[in-house]
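Case study 2.
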Amino acid sequence: MILTELNERLDILLTSAVITKKAAEVAVEAFIHLQSTLKKDEIDHAEMLFTHLPMALSRIEKEEKVEATHPDLLTEVKNSPYSAQAGREIDYVQTLWTGRLPQEELDYLLIHYATLFQLNEGGNE
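Prediction:
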């Protein structure tokens, strides 16, 4: 996925009123930050994360809840070599977002980001 593809995806979600403008803006900034972290313009398999992220932020704005992820999956991801990198990206997202993200959303983002780092060979760390 490249930035123009992300913007096209976000435009569709915005037009369909699935996500909010603020959520789309944060997703774009998070994508650009991840490109910088990975030192790649094209991020492989980023579609899932960058669909989930703006939808999650929109849910938070609407005060909707999400169920917790399976604890075994979360434990596996937390023990992965990509967990720390994923955590740093999530911390960046939180600096862009006003207010703390709910733990359930943080857990899902950890899974998505760790998977993305794994699929993109961990970036350049």
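The chain has one domain: 3-119.
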